[in-house]
Amino acid sequence: MKYLESLRNKVIKDTVALATKKERDKTGLFVLEGERLVSEIEETDLIEYIIVSEGYNGRIPDAKNSYLVNDELFAHLSDTVHPQGILAVCHQLKYNMESAFLNKNPLFVILENLQDPGNLGTIIRTADAAGADGVFLSKGTVDLYNPKVVRSTMGSLFHLPIYTGVDVADILNKCKKYNIYTLAAHLAGVSTPYSAKLYAPSAILIGNEASGLTPETTTMADELVRIPMPGKAESMNASVAAAILIYEAVRQRLSEV
């Protein structure tokens, strides 16, 4: 394990630069920080290199390159308040989108222009827990490899296909081609999720936290549903709305077994 001690070292400078989306897009790399998240990496070929602090005494995954730094330098690299002393620089994940549509009775989640990293991470975790077959992120959605998103997925970004930078209209047209029912959470919805046909091949659409789905996407969806809100709140958090719809699909599918 090579010891690095200077902020001017190329490995250190390259790692710091990955805090920006521009550099992540350019290199196809991202930073995964913390013992639990690093331990979720099942394919070690995804790891470009590992950096650990002198004070770290946990397990270090196999990697072609590993570096040791002092605790102060690691704190400079860390994006967290209380660094755990280990991070991995990994290759971004790539999936064959066409194969997703060949799954038997698929359940997809399509996110349009979602902006909050915590919401995105929570929805990915929920989709993972529900056994969804894929999550699609529109071009205007917060970057999947934003450090806050990566942390909030709690490793779920490794457990199911996530397709980034998609054109939502193209995905909806694919859904129509493969007879996948598209359901949009929308305040203009007249029916509830509980009468929707989520036991069949389905895609759930969730829009921007402030403005919801675009008019084009709203028009293309097969059905608009409104989650009942008998209380005084006028709207619902995007990740909560997504969880309600995703788990309604789970409930219906379990009932069909």
Number of strands: 11
Distance between the termini: 52 Å
Beta-strand content bin = 15-25%
Q: Please provide the ordered H/E string of secondary-structure elements.
A: EHHEHEEHEHEHEHEHEEHEH
Q: What is the C-alpha radius of gyration, as a whole number of Å? A: 20 Å
Task: Report strand order across the widest sheet.
Answer: 8-7-6-10-9-11
Taken from the alpha-carbon principal axes, the silhouette is elongated
Specify the structural class: alpha/beta
pLDDT average, as an integer? 94
Number of helices: 10
Largest sheet: 6 strands, parallel
Question: Could you characterize what this model shows?
Answer:
33% of the residues lie in helices and 20% in strands. The protein has ten helices and eleven strands. It has helices at 10-17, 21-27, 35-39, 71-77, 97-100, 117-129, 147-153, 168-177, 215-220, 238-256; strands at 2-3, 29-33, 47-53, 66-69, 86-91, 107-111, 134-138, 162-166, 181-185, 202-206, 223-225. It is elongated. 37% of the residues are buried.
